[in-house]
Amino acid sequence: MKIILTHEVEKLGEAGEVVTVKDGYARNFLLPRGYATVWTKGAQRQIDQIAASRRKRATEDIEQAREIREALEANVLTITKTAGANGRLFGAVSTADVAVVASEVAGKPVDRRSVNLHTNIKSVGEYTGQVKLHADVVANIKVSVIAE
Questions:
Q1: Rounded CA gap, 52 and 58, in Å?
Q2: Phi and psi at residue 141, in whole multiples of 5°?
């Protein structure tokens, strides 16, 4: 049975792909859960239009991601947190905290799920991390945590 995936399915494909699977797998698993729809000629035309718009948007996005990368790598992201006398933070610096500061620096929203800190930040100091802005663009960031 030919189906169009509406969500990413592990070991099968990503959203928007047309795949052929056994009838029972499609009828009993993929279709009831909303992971796929049945393939038709009209749906294929719609997928082709969506793919064309994605390709156009991807070229614009990669240029924008490179600009954001330059802005993030040029600056040190400074985060202020409450800390004890020995420099240990009350709590930790999360990826959401870094994403908020990165969004302010870049001028564009940065998703917290795209931030990768190499370690848990639980004390004052300098740290490094990465922000995945696009499939091909990764920014290496420097995070400075100072006591409030």
A1: 10
A2: -115, 155
Pick from 52, 65, 57, 50: nearest CA to 106 = 65
Distances (CA, A) of 110 to 63, 70, 143: 15, 14, 15
Query: Whole-angstrom Cα distance, residue 143 to residue 115?
Result: 12
pLDDT for 56-87, tens place per residue? Answer: 777 678 888 899 999 999 999 999 999 998 98
What CATH superfamily is the domain 64-147?
A: Ribosomal protein L9, C-terminal domain (3.10.430.100)
Q: What is the pLDDT of residue 7?
A: 85
Residue type, 71: A
Identify whether the C-beta of residue 90 lies closer than 8 Å to the C-beta of residue 84.
yes
Give the span between the Cα atoms of 135 and 110, in whole angstroms. Answer: 14
